[in-house]
Design a protein that fits this description.
The protein contains 15 helices and twelve strands. The chain is α/β, with parallel strands linked by helices and 436 residues long. It has a seven-stranded mixed sheet with strand order 7-6-8-9-10-11-12, sandwiched between helices. A five-stranded parallel sheet has the order 2-3-4-1-5, sandwiched between helices. The protein is globular and about 70 Å long.
């Protein structure tokens, strides 16, 4: 399956000198597959994979110190083959399992800027020591909706998506894929099973459900393995609580995360700060910060650390944790679509447009997202799960602040960007907010 991050990897490769590239992201988002099987196989004569999770003893290549020449020599001996620093890719996989490997990246940056050194990790945000300024960071997310369209292998539909065509036929196809995406999500194993398996939609959905169960169990194990001094039970309690709090809002905007009732006898942010931030740093959850006044730059100055919405990193796993069936996600009139759509847009914005994200709320009026355009303009983005585009909160925002532009993301085919300052786009074009 193709990934859009390949273009960034190619840009890194084509430089005359480069820092080691560190690919960060949640577990099972496809980091190793992307670097080794797609990028590495296509662009290098050889890829030398060093997996510190599968081969803990391979850390012995650092026993003689962190000098790059010595590390490469030891790796050649361990693997029994020569490594060409001018042509080969060296991949340190699950680098978070070996602190020496992380520390060595600094010396590769300083003494071997011509070498192709790439590292991947699932818990980079949780590391105690990190070579700041000595690596180039690239975050990989679950597959976004465009990548899901690419995985469908309908090239004409993908071209129509990239050109943002409108029309009922194209809209019908893309909307149908979006509803599938709501169920499958963007974790590559689930996406591959959905498109590559034979059988009815029900049979394929059962296979995806099993994959989601296995992936969820793996994340639970990580809570205990990587939680450190934090209580793994508290991390899991917060993780399980995110879908439940999202689902309570029905068609309204998602509300700020409520701390009371998540863990017994804990009702304040400071008591849950550790588990929440652990999930965010592990890329399993993300925050959206509400602004409760006139939005002006910098938006960060208008928010508070203890007030935020909390979203799940993958839309498919969100549905799984709520025991939602494929038929539930396909149901057009389902009242829960509001929070599903909002979590979808949150993930699209984080992976393709901006990170962090912001929303707006004053009194009973709420706008799901605020987007800062390339010219500095801050525009309100209203999210509608169905075909309705009447937005009372948006009208209230316009009356207060008279923005130059507004955007509604909905289930309609929508209007085109040239149609005026009040834009109506289909939900699946959320990533194109980055072009405004």
């Amino acid at each position: 399956m193709e990934r859009l991050a390949t273009e960034q990897l190619l840009d890194w490769k084509n430089r005359k000198q480069r820092k080691p590239l560190l690919l960060d992201g949640a577990r099972q988002v496809g980091k190793t597959w992307l670097v080794e099987r797609i990028f590495g196989k296509r662009n290098f004569p050889a890829v030398h994979l060093v997996d510190f999770l599968a081969e803990p003893n391979i850390a012995g290549i650092f026993d003689d110190g962190l000098e790059p020449d010595r590390i490469i020599a030891n790796l050649e001996i361990a693997r029994g083959r020569k490594i060409s620093l001018d042509t080969d890719l060296i991949l340190f996989d699950e680098v978070g399992e070996c602190q020496q490997a992380i520390d060595s990246l600094k010396y590769f940056a300083e003494r071997m800027p011509h070498a192709y050194i790439c590292a991947t990790g699932s818990n980079i945000g949780l590391l105690g020591s990190f070579p700041v300024g000595k690596v180039e960071l690239l975050e990989l997310f679950p597959m976004c909706f465009e990548e899901f369209v690419m995985a469908s292998e309908n090239r004409l539909l993908h071209e129509a998506f990239k050109e943002r065509h409108r029309g009922q036929t194209i809209h019908g196809e893309l909307w149908s894929l979006l509803l599938d995406y709501y169920f499958v999500g963007g974790l590559p194993e689930a996406v591959q099973a959905w498109f590559n398996s034979e059988g009815s939609p029900f049979e394929r959905s059962e296979l995806v459900k099993k994959i989601h169960r296995d992936l969820f169990a793996g994340y639970q194990r990580d809570f205990g393995k990587y939680g450190g001094k934090l209580n793994a039970g508290h991390i899991e309690a917060v993780f399980r609580n995110i879908p439940g709090q999202l689902a309570k809002v029905m068609d309204d905007s998602v509300k700020r995360f409520v701390f009371k009732g998540v863990v017994e006898n804990k009702s304040r942010y400071q008591e849950l700060r550790g588990p929440i931030n652990w999930l965010v740093q592990a890329k399993l959850a993300s925050k959206c910060f509400p602004v409760d006044c006139r939005p002006v730059a910098p938006l960060e100055a208008l928010t508070k650390d203890n007030i935020f919405k909390l979203f799940l990193f993958d839309i498919g796993l969100l549905g799984h944790m709520l025991n939602m069936e494929y038929s539930d996600q396909r149901a057009q009139a389902a009242s829960y679509k509001g929070f599903i759509a909002e979590n979808f847009v949150q993930n699209e914005l984080r992976s393709r447009v901006q990170n962090p994200t912001w929303s707006w709320a004053e009194g009973r009026s709420e706008i799901e997202f605020l987007h800062r355009c390339r010219n500095g303009e801050i525009i309100p983005v209203e999210v509608k799960s169905g075909s309705r585009t009447k937005a009372r909160s948006l009208r209230a925002y316009v009356e207060r602040y008279a923005p130059e532009h507004t955007v509604i993301l909905s289930g309609k085919a929508g209007k085109w960007p040239d149609d005026g300052p009040n834009l109506v786009w289909p939900l699946y074009y959320a990533q194109y907010l980055g072009e405004l």
